[in-house]
Amino acid sequence: MPGAHTHDLITVVTGVALAPLTFSTNLALGIDTQLALQQTVIVVGAHLLSGIMFSPDLDLDSAIDNRWGIFYWIWRPYMWVVPHRSRWLSHGLVFPPLLRLFYFFWMVVGVLIGAAWLFGRIGITLPNFHLVVSAAVLGVVTRHPREVWSFLVGFVTGSAAHSVADWLVTGGKRYLRRFGFVVRFNADNHDHWRGYSRRRARY
């Protein structure tokens, strides 16, 4: 499998390639130039966010969860439950990235509820931030459906660029071996577990 930095490069390159395609597609659909540019920015931004911060490799302890800094623990339950390289839950093309987005939303809501409960135990009342966040997300979805769809498209393509790269490397090595070629390249080390404190210095 390609390493984290290689996947980042793939994400950026495919994002750059996606920009003119998205812009021209919007123009072909009769959308005016300014709105087409806005939709392009949303798609490419979501593509980069998905590939770099919500990578399929969040299903293992790797450089990706380090990027969340002190909030890396948010992904621990996901990591424990989702099998690595699962076609259905982590490395598939459509459902897995949407699952990560859904998971992240509910983790944020859960943290806000937990924080309100903990502060309540010591006599401090916090506003219902989880309701505020939920209402804000629902408001964006209902008031800006076109932008939401553009974001979801970019979010899916960002994850797909990672998964397809993994499949090509794995399949390519397999076919080369069938034809008698010796494949010495091995990127399996990107799956090896390293503790958070030790990995932080490396990445």
Task: Provide a brief overview of the structure.
The protein has helices at 4-28, 33-53, 63-66, 76-81, 95-121, 129-143, 145-178, 196-202. With 203 residues, it is mostly helical.
Number of helices: 8
Q: What portion of residues belong to β-strands?
A: under 5%
Global geometry? flat
Low-confidence stretches: 187-203
Q: How large is the radius of gyration?
A: 20 Å
Number of strands: 0
InterPro entries: DUF2227_metal-bd
Transmembrane segments: 101-119
Keywords: Membrane, Transmembrane, Transmembrane helix
Protein name: Metal-binding protein
Describe the structure.
The chain has 203 residues and is mainly α. The protein has one domain. Helices cover 68% and strands 0% of the residues. The chain has helices at residues 4-28, 33-53, 63-66, 76-81, 95-121, 129-143, 145-178, 196-202. Helix 1 (4-28) crosses helix 7, helix 2 (33-53) crosses helix 7 (145-178) and helix 5 crosses helix 7 (145-178). The protein is flat.
